[in-house]
Specification:
heterodimer, A: about 280 residues, two-stranded antiparallel sheet, 13 helices, B: about 290 residues, Rossmann fold, 11 helices, 9 strands
Chain lengths: ~280, ~290
């Protein structure tokens, strides 16, 4: 699991898989492989820490608290050494939400206007609220990016499986769910590759995927989806057989090649995050 | 498909006309996020109308990429692909592109319709041919691959055997009346009988004047079906031209993780000269007997 920006590695743990179209890869390419103190943290610790930060962020509405959490996220980013470009790319999907939040709050917040344009009144209070909400959204997204950018998806599912273990008492099959997620992640690049090939093949047979209205376009996907489903079911069958042949038993206690192991640094991080949350609540 | 509007012009298929394809300094790179992989570098090749050419090269040498570039599914990063002397965007180049049928590797994975006939008719329908023409094209394509429409037309594609599915996918391409057939590893993962069937079909198409570009690892079938060959390695054309007999023979293939065709090697070991090069295995057997 090494290699800079090893996307296929990160998503699938399968270095040989070349992945699908570039655009598709972008959307999945979230893990940025690199040695850093943040990357080395136990994924469970990271999940808990980020969850605590996000919950804290919503518990108290003040610029001071926001500053505390913002600085914490920035420090984490700095330590992780993930290039800012990757963070910016992660923020791109929420840009419109940010703009919308800002504009709506700015225009509709009550308070004495400092600038009026026809029916629109902009107030200092509105500016403050708009700025606060937008910044909070940015900090929220950056904190979650810090988790996904520094944790391979499979480590993330492992962590979530471990953290949801108490649910086993309620007979929730957490291990099996985690395995399903892991397998699904593993096959995303494979599926992308197959979609790419099948679409090319059908285009060579005269199919067009960009002509006509939505209904026509949806119908144009039938020649892609049918073979894709057939292949996927066939592969699922084979994978199930292969797993059985290698003695996989649902629900049986499983050992891991890389057992999750908490270190002192994880405890330090958790204590520091707890202290931050308390600090943000008090100021 | 032009089904809407008052002025419905239903196109009729033209007969398969051969076309010439020319690569001029074609380079292509796959963008893999942080790294780029040069799949083809400076490829200059000419495929004459009606010629049959084998593309030989080890895995990853750029054969599939070249086929997709020829068909216009990929656009070269440098250089250009000319069809009958026309570059992309010039004249009726799109129509000429349509006359190239590309059979993908494992093409049976593109079958999707509920019946064999519908699947084969998909291409002609996309071209906007009249119902009669679509029907006729599907029937003759099914016949050409040995799956007669009266027996196979109504069957579900997934009820066919692997070899039959491969031939059905070929029929789907043939129904569009190509003048040049591009085939990507057509023999791979078929049993010997199915390979023989497919080879016979391709030979019949050759006899009918169809041009072939055959990317394959099966050098013996490449030799049987193609007059000349192009050797690719790591995205570069290492050698191109007719099969070589005489001194050295096809040693270039050995040097690039391939092997010479059996007949070529046999001829060489028997000390026969280049002058009496055998056209095929059967002819070699006759000559020896």
């Amino acid at each position: 699991m090494a290699g800079r920006g090893g996307v296929a590695v990160a998503v699938g743990g399968d270095g040989t898989c070349p992945g699908g179209g570039a655009a598709m890869r972008m959307a999945i390419a979230q893990y940025y492989a690199r040695p850093s103190p943040i990357h080395r943290l136990d994924p469970r610790c990271k999940v808990v820490a980020v969850t605590a930060l996000v919950v804290g962020l919503f518990l108290r509405s003040s610029f001071a608290a926001l500053a505390v959490y913002g600085l914490a996220a920035a420090a984490g980013l700095l330590l992780s050494g993930v290039p800012l470009g990757w963070v910016a790319r992660g923020l791109r999907p929420v840009v419109w939400l940010l703009v919308l939040t800002f504009v709506v709050q700015l225009v509709f917040a009550p308070g004495p206007a400092f600038y009026s344009l026809g029916p629109l009144h902009l107030s200092m209070r509105g500016l403050a609220i708009a700025g606060y909400l937008s910044l909070r959204l940015v900090v929220l997204v950056v904190a979650s990016l810090l988790l996904t950018l520094t944790t391979p998806p499979i480590a993330l599912t492992d962590a979530l499986a471990w953290l949801s273990r108490p649910l086993r008492r309620l007979r929730v099959p957490t291990e099996e769910l985690a395995l399903m997620v892991t397998i699904a992640l593993r096959f995303i690049p494979t599926l992308m590759q197959e979609i790419d090939t099948i679409m090319k093949a059908q285009r060579a047979r005269g199919a067009s995927f960009s002509r006509g209205g939505p209904l026509r376009r949806a119908r144009a996907l039938v020649p892609v989806l049918v073979p894709l489903f057939v292949l996927s079911f066939r592969r699922a069958d084979e994978l199930a057989l292969a797993m059985e042949a290698r003695c996989y038993l649902p629900g049986a206690p499983r050992t891991r090649l890389h057992p999750l192991q908490a270190h002192r640094r994880d405890a330090v991080v958790l204590v520091a995050v707890a202290a931050l949350v308390v600090l943000a609540e008090l100021i | 498909m032009r089904r809407r509007g008052a002025a419905v012009t239903e196109l009729e298929p033209e007969g398969a006309r051969p076309l010439s394809v020319c690569c001029e300094g074609v380079s292509f790179r796959y963008d893999e996020g942080a790294t780029t992989i040069a799949a083809l570098r400076g490829v200059d090749l000419t495929f004459a109308p009606g010629a049959s050419v084998a593309l030989l090269g080890p895995t990853g040498s750029g054969k599939s990429t070249l086929l997709q570039l020829l068909r216009g599914l990929l656009v070269p990063d440098e250089g250009r692909v000319l069809l009958d002397g026309l570059a992309a965007g010039e004249g009726d180049v799109e129509e000429r592109r349509r006359r190239m049928g590309l059979v993908f590797q494992m093409p049976e994975m593109q079958l999707f319709a509920a019946t064999c006939r519908d699947d084969v008719a998909f291409g002609p329908r996309q071209l906007g041919w009249s119902d009669g023409a679509v029907d006729e094209a599907a029937t003759s394509a099914l016949a050409a691959v040995g799956l007669p429409a009266d027996r196979f037309g109504a069957r579900h594609p997934y009820s066919l055997s692997g070899g039959e599915q491969r031939r059905l996918a070929l029929a789907g391409v043939l129904a569009m009346r190509p003048g040049l057939l591009l085939l990507d590893e057509p023999f791979v993962s078929l049993d010997p009988a199915s390979r023989r069937d497919l080879e016979a079909i391709l030979r019949d198409l050759r006899t009918g004047g169809m041009g072939l570009v055959l990317a394959t690892h099966d050098v013996d079938r490449a030799y049987a079906l193609c007059e000349s060959r192009v050797v690719l390695d790591e995205g570069v054309v290492v050698d191109a031209g007719p099969w070589r007999f005489g001194a050295g023979g096809e040693d270039v293939l050995l040097a690039h993780r391939l092997k010479p065709p059996f007949v070529v090697e046999l001829w060489r070991r028997l000390g026969r000269g280049a002058a009496e090069a055998p056209p095929q295995l059967t002819a070699a057997a006759e000559a020896l007997a």
